[in-house]
Amino acid sequence: MNLEELDKQYILQTYGRNYTNFVEAKGSTVFDEDGADYIDFASGIGVNSIGHANPTLVSAICEQAGKIIHISNLQVIEPQAKLAEKICKLANYDGAIFFANSGAEANEGAIKIARKYGETKFEKKKYKVITLEHSFHGRTITTVKATGQDSFHTPNFAPYPDGFSYVNEIESVYKSIDDETVAVLIELVQGEGGVQPFPKDEIQKLAMHLKEIGVLLIVDEVQTGIYRTGKMLASNVYEIEPDIVTLAKGLGGGMPIGAVLTKHKDILSAGDHGSTFGGNYMSTTSGLAVLEVLSGLDESGDLSDTIDYFTNKLQDIAKKQSNLFDKEVGIGLMRGLRAKDNDTMKAILANSMNEKLIVLPAGRNTVRFLPSLTITKEEIDEGFKRFEKAIASL
Ligand SMILES: *Cc1c(COP(=O)(O)O)cnc(C)c1O
Question: Which CATH number fits domain 301-371+385-394: 3.30.300.30, 3.40.50.410, 3.90.1150.10, 3.10.580.10?
Answer without folding.
Answer: 3.90.1150.10
